[in-house]
Amino acid sequence: MAAESGKIDPMHQFEIAPISNGGFEIAGQAITFTNSALWMLLTLVAVWVFMQGGMKRELVPGRWQLMVEGFTGFIDDMMTANIGAEGRKYAPYVFSLFMFILFANILGLIPIGVVGGHPFTVTSHLTITGVLAIVSFSIVLIVGFARHGLHFFSLFVPHGTPLPMIPFIFVVELLSFLVRPFSLGLRLFVAMTAGHILLKVLAGFVINSTNAGIGYGLLVGLPSLTLMVGISALEILVAVVQAYVFALLTSLYINDAVNLH
Amino acid sequence: MPQIDQIMTTYGSQLFWLVITFGLIYFVIGRSMFPKIQGTVDQRKAKIAGDIAAAKAAHARADEIEEEYRVAHARARDAALAVTAEAKAKGAREAEAKVRAADNGIATQLADAEAAIAAQQTAALAEIEAVAVEAAQDIVARLTPAKITKPQVNRAVKGALADA
């Protein structure tokens, strides 16, 4: 598509295309092995390989084991700090979430385009981030109602609210609670999409300006390339921060469900 | 934006693969590997805490032993001091006794000597008296024709000696 029109389409990287023929249908949806599925599997494999380093379970850890234990300890500490001792129960889910998002984000940034590959960022799709957010939100709802029953609604009335303000505050708090899954899913999706579009647009500047002549290449292409280097570094940071934010917010929401206020 | 343009045609496929991959990550990694790694970390923490506790206990035991040693040392020193003090006292007592015995010996010798001196003095005095009596008798006999008897001379000499 991009080659046909002679210009670079920054959105092309987000397109999902089947890799293999065949597949089957479930409820009218064609299930095929797509590039998205490939990168999800790569994420799974990468996380699994990384975690193997932690399975040596030596008393004195090596570098790799220490790295894995750093990740598990990070999530473990976060859950304990935000929820308390009970938080460890939810740590496996938050850890899975964190590792999946982190590795998917970072794998999508690997510049295999240089050798003709097409990296695909799983987390740049609203379908994926939305489902993860809905799963997190469902856990909050299930835990909240299972533990507190209808008393869970007291979450929407903060302590010390004056009586006449309660209906108003309740509505506001309920709305902010209901917006959570959307903000959670959209935040990751938008951050990933925006960063990748920006990188592609700048890459397009470099290619098109250089094709237009060496003068344009030096005038436009070179600054764009410099900017791309900086933004690539920023994107790595964003990849880590977004995974952290997703896990952190999930832990905070679970804390609401477990401890109310 | 393909994410939204394609959403109706691809969501099933994406969901299907997400359930598989995230499910595997959750059950294999989150549920199975993560607790094991946590366990390793906890075990290590427990081991370190245990080792530190053992080291502290050993340290306390060492302190105890040192204290015991110190007490034993002090006791031994006290005992040694007592023994030396006793020995010193005994030595002093013995020396005193010896000195006293020697004193006694010296005193008896002195008394004997004094007695001997006194005896000799009396003997000498008696001899002087006898000599004086004879001399006085001779002198009187040569100078005067008067005859005097020995008891008279004796009395006179005794009186003169007593006056002297």
TrEMBL record, chain A:
The chain crosses the membrane at residues 37-54, 90-114, 126-146, 225-254. InterPro entries: ATP_synth_F0_asu (IPR000568), ATP_synth_F0_asu_bact/mt (IPR045083), F0_ATP_A_sf (IPR035908). GO terms for cellular component: plasma membrane; proton-transporting ATP synthase complex. It is a multi-pass membrane protein. It is found in: Cell membrane; Membrane. One of its GO terms (molecular function) is proton-transporting ATP synthase activity, rotational mechanism. Keywords: ATP synthesis, Cell membrane, CF(0), Hydrogen ion transport, Ion transport, Membrane, Transmembrane, Transmembrane helix, Transport. It holds the Pfam family ATP-synt_A. Its main location: membrane. SUPFAM superfamilies: F1F0 ATP synthase subunit A (SSF81336). The keyword Nucleotide-binding does not apply. It comes from the Bacteria. Belongs to the ATPase A chain family. Key component of the proton channel; it plays a direct role in the translocation of protons across the membrane. This is ATP synthase subunit a. It comes from Blastomonas natatoria. The gene is atpB.
TrEMBL record, chain B:
Belongs to the ATPase B chain family. The keyword Transmembrane applies. It comes from the Bacteria. One of its GO terms (cellular component) is plasma membrane. It comes from Blastomonas natatoria. F-type ATPases have 2 components, F(1) - the catalytic core - and F(0) - the membrane proton channel. F(1) has five subunits: alpha(3), beta(3), gamma(1), delta(1), epsilon(1). F(0) has three main subunits: a(1), b(2) and c(10-14). The alpha and beta chains form an alternating ring which encloses part of the gamma chain. F(1) is attached to F(0) by a central stalk formed by the gamma and epsilon chains, while a peripheral stalk is formed by the delta and b chains. The chain crosses the membrane at residues 15-34. Its main location: membrane. GO terms for molecular function: proton-transporting ATP synthase activity, rotational mechanism; proton-transporting ATPase activity, rotational mechanism. It is found in: Cell membrane; Endomembrane system. The gene is atpF. This is ATP synthase subunit b. It is a single-pass membrane protein. Keywords: ATP synthesis, Cell membrane, CF(0), Hydrogen ion transport, Ion transport, Membrane, Transmembrane, Transmembrane helix, Transport. PANTHER family: ATP SYNTHASE SUBUNIT B (PTHR33445:SF1), ATP SYNTHASE SUBUNIT B', CHLOROPLASTIC (PTHR33445). F(1)F(0) ATP synthase produces ATP from ADP in the presence of a proton or sodium gradient. F-type ATPases consist of two structural domains, F(1) containing the extramembraneous catalytic core and F(0) containing the membrane proton channel, linked together by a central stalk and a peripheral stalk. During catalysis, ATP synthesis in the catalytic domain of F(1) is coupled via a rotary mechanism of the central stalk subunits to proton translocation. Component of the F(0) channel, it forms part of the peripheral stalk, linking F(1) to F(0). The b'-subunit is a diverged and duplicated form of b found in plants and photosynthetic bacteria.
